[in-house]
Amino acid sequence: MNKQKISIEHRYRGSIELPENRYAKDVFFRTKQAYANHDKMGVHLIFSKNKLKQLQTYTKGGAESELDNIDLYIELGEILGFNTEDAKKLKSFIQTTNDTAHSNFNITKRLKLINKQKSTKVQTSYLFWDIENFSGISSIFNQIIEPYEIEDSNIYLAANPDSLYLKKAEWEANLYDYGKTLQSFNFIKCDHGKNVADNMLLESLNNLNLKNSNIFMLSFDRELKERFKSEAHRSNNLYVM
Q1: How far is Cα 94 from Cα 99, in angstroms, rounded to an integer?
Q2: Which residues does 156 contact at the CB level (< 8 Å), separation at least 6?
Q3: Distance between CA atoms of residues 120 and 202, nearest Å
Q4: Which end of the chain is more exposed for a tag (fewer CB within 10 A), N or C?
Q5: Distance between CA atoms of residues 184 and 157, nearest Å
Q6: Residues 92 and 123 in one domain
Q7: Domain containing residue 69
Q8: Same domain for 52 and 7?
């Protein structure tokens, strides 16, 4: 990732990592300039009116780059001290819209074995769940957790404080249908910052030192999938969406 220093009126305010997409740098400079000029802050600095309209419906690929740029804006707000509530609400709406669309798909048909040509026989299964960006709880239970008999103790979830604040009630309500709460699993409440939840999931995988297991990694994040692939032992069957 490209790290950028944040200076306002010749005063250093911090630094931030830019997502690897074509619009991230524009969002960064536009937001910084608007703040320096004391202009009105808001999601109009991230997306055009036309793009905001498009985001009202399902976006192919789970709106991955769009969510990355919203996270960039929110993190800039934390560093510079401006309100980002509208961006947090937009993020939650986009995630809900895309999760609803994904819940209509057959997840098992979309799972892909990425670390070998053919699965091998294993004894146990584990789930590493980016619940911030993939919260279709019913489809995950019905198509992964229950068929593969994944124990609660073998399920790892992570979320940052913003996502937890916005979606905890929804997650808990959906989990209640299965007699579970977030605390039924290995749930990690992370600090603020981009990729913190991803790093915690990867750290959990490394600490377990798994071998001869099914590993299901549910996330829209391509980089996290590649990191799991490089870290998971060859004897495991690594499945991603």
Answers
A1: 8
A2: 126, 127, 128, 129, 185, 186, 188, 201, 204, 205
A3: 22
A4: N
A5: 10
A6: no
A7: 2-103
A8: yes
**Are residues 64 and 133 located together in one domain of the fold?**
no
pLDDT bracket for residue 9 (50, 70, 90): confident
pLDDT at residue 50, as a whole number: 92
The CATH number of residue 169's host domain is 3.40.50
**CA 200 to the chain's CA centroid:** 12
User: Are both 80 and 154 inside the same structural domain?
Assistant: no
Give the pairing type, strands 2-8 and 11-18: antiparallel
Burial of 65 (0-12, 13-18, 19+ CB in 10 A): middle
Regarding whether 149 and 193 lie in a shared domain, the answer is yes
| Residue whose C-alpha is closest to residue 72's, from 36, 126, 24 | 24
Percent of the chain at pLDDT > 90 equals: 53
Check whether residue 130 and residue 203 sit in a common domain: yes
Are 6 and 32 in contact, with CB atoms under 8 Å apart?
yes
Pairing of strands 237-240, 213-218: parallel
Considering the domain architecture, whether residues 113 and 176 belong to the same structural domain is answered as yes
Q: Report which residue type is found at 8.
A: I
Mean pLDDT of the chain: 86
pLDDT at residue 58, rounded to an integer: 64
